[in-house]
Write a structure and sequence with these properties.
With 514 residues, this protein is α/β, with parallel strands linked by helices. The protein folds into 4 domains: 218 residues, NADH-ubiquinone oxidoreductase 51kDa subunit (Rossmann fold); 85 residues, Ubiquitin-like (UB roll), CATH 3.10.20; 89 residues, de novo design (two linked rop proteins) (Up-down Bundle); 69 residues, Alpha-Beta Plaits. Helix content is 39%, strand content 16%. The chain contains 18 helices and 17 strands. The two termini are 17 Å apart.
């Protein structure tokens, strides 16, 4: 079992590798090694590329699963209608802590992603390509790949200008409107408007934005053709998929699998034991499946959806039998609340209320607390400035459906008797690229956590008003603290809450973590 995911997990291919071709021989494929592994890239017109994307049923691999052909058509029509040159944006931010597939592609096979992006740009007549990343290794690799193509420093080649944008490593950075806003020089936060990027995206131009794996898949399809691409996989999910498999396995891995493969087979090959009590599909915005459902699920958009699962970011986490599933979900719910942009009511107030109500259920507060969970989830869905509240609500509600025996034990008997092992790979507050105290190279991370001196606390509640993402007022009128470190983006609020506590009962504790 490996609670923390390395930035570059081991890779494995079930069958002949496509996306991972060549990575068994090199840590990173430079331009020459990339062409040796994949061959030259044929060019396509917009109509040809659209027909190819339709023929191979290419859908986004970053979460929503939107058909790529429809994006192409929408951007092409908008550009023609407005007489404007469109843009292409690669979303490689991958803010979900359970996924590393895009990190592997960008750090080790960046030219395959760039092939798909530049192919799309040429077909649409786009003037710019932007690659959004959050990790240092991905940024360095993509910059090096652009230099190998003569596109370093924003130089223009073949009428296209390309650049890399680095965003903070947060869940919200992977939200499409946050990436577009950051690429235009603004804050890496959703702007609160629901404009389609295909109509008005980067710099106000029609923009085709998709995930890094999606562009890599497009580059493969262009080389293989529709028939060759569909030579593996299932009728509704041709080709291969990248999964990040973690949890109750010997080590986390990024695995390339044929579309439609049984989920149970993937877990077995990755070394999962025979009895996980459930499987998380699609990451922290995904859904839990109970063991019996996971045993019959197949890895595809439709196959997982039919079982109540989500392909999402391609994350698969097997939950071992010796941890409390409700406790694991509470940890993640608190983290999701703290990761919000805090710009709208559903995020700022609704997600902390959802996490708090679920924590009450886990603590044995009974049927009333369970009803508050359902009410809080219903209150945030469809009302956020982005999809974060919807994803968090789906994640929490899926746990109630998947772990009914454990839920009954907490509601009726006050608990299940198992500890919460912390299997979900939630990041520390400092982040993986954070330096050691005092600067210099990365070292042991210093995680700050809120703590209360209960001999001083008088229940004023000011801390909950200042920091609702991490503090709420419990049924007894006293503060209840989230079981999560204080993220960088909330540190200022946390310090302000500590300073303004009338009883001087609140403090920030530091603990070293390796």
């Amino acid at each position: 079992m490996s609670p923390a995911l390395p930035e570059q997990p081991a890779v494995l291919a079930l069958g002949r590798p496509r996306l991972l071709a060549g990575l068994d021989r090199a840590a990173r494929l430079d331009r020459s090694a990339h062409l040796s592994a994949h061959g030259s890239l044929p060019q396509h017109t917009e109509a040809q590329l659209t027909a190819l994307a339709e023929a191979v049923a290419l859908r986004g691999r970053g979460g929503a699963g939107f058909p790529f052909a429809r994006k192409l058509q929408a951007v092409g029509r908008a550009a023609q209608r407005r007489g404007a040159r469109p843009a292409v944006v690669v979303n490689g931010c991958e803010g979900d802590p359970t996924s590393r597939k895009d990190a592997v592609l960008l750090a080790r096979a960046p030219h395959l992603v760039l092939d798909g992006a530049l192919l799309t740009a040429a077909a649409l007549g786009a003037g710019s390509v932007v690659v959004g990343v959050t990790r240092a290794a991905a940024e360095a690799s993509v910059r090096e790949a652009l230099a190998e193509r003569g596109l370093a420093g924003g130089r223009r080649a073949l009428s296209v200008r390309a650049r890399v944008v680095r965003l903070p490593e947060r869940l919200v950075s992977g939200e499409s409107s946050a990436l577009l806003r950051a690429a235009d020089g603004g804050l890496p936060l959703p702007p609160g408007r629901h404009d389609r990027a295909s109509r008005e995206g980067l710099g106000g131009a029609p923009t085709l934005l998709s995930n890094a794996e999606t562009f890599a898949q497009l580059a493969l399809a262009a080389r293989l053709g529709a028939e060759g691409y569909a030579a593996t996989g299932a009728p509704g999910q041709p080709g291969t998929l990248l999964l990040t498999v973690s949890g109750a396995v010997p080590e986390p891995q990024v695995v390339e699998v044929p579309g439609g493969v049984p989920l149970a087979y993937v877990l077995k090959v990755c070394g999962a034991g025979p009895g996980p009590q459930g499987v998380l599909t699609g990451g922290c915005h995904g859904a839990w499946l109970d063991a019996a459902t996971a045993a019959r699920a197949r890895v595809s958009h439709g196959g997982l959806a039919d079982c109540g699962g989500v392909l999402g970011v391609g994350a698969v986490l097997a939950l071992p039998a010796d941890t409390c599933p409700l406790g694991e979900t509470v940890r993640a719910a608190h983290w999701l609340a703290a990761e919000s942009a805090g710009q709208c009511g559903p995020c700022r107030s609704g997600l902390p209320a959802l996490a708090g109500a679920l924590a009450d259920v886990a603590a044995g507060a009974g049927q009333g607390a369970l009803e508050r969970v359902r009410e809080a989830a219903g209150a945030v869905r469809g009302r956020g400035a982005c999809g974060h509240p919807d994803g968090a609500a789906r994640f929490v509600l899926s746990a109630l459906s998947a772990f009914t025996d454990d839920l009954a034990a907490h509601v009726l008997h006050g608990g299940c008797g198992r500890p919460t092992a912390g299997v979900l790979p939630l990041p520390s507050a400092a982040g993986p690229d954070a330096p050691a105290d005092g600067g210099g190279p990365p070292g042991p991370r210093r995680v700050e956590r809120l703590a209360v001196d209960w001999t001083l606390c008088e229940g004023h509640g000011l801390c909950a008003g200042l920091l609702p993402q991490l503090v709420r007022i419990g049924p007894d009128g006293y503060p209840s603290l989230a079981d999560a470190g204080v993220p960088d983006h909330l540190r200022g609020r946390a310090q302000r809450a500590v300073r303004r506590c009338p009883a001087l009962a609140l403090r920030l504790d530091k603990e070293g973590r390796h």
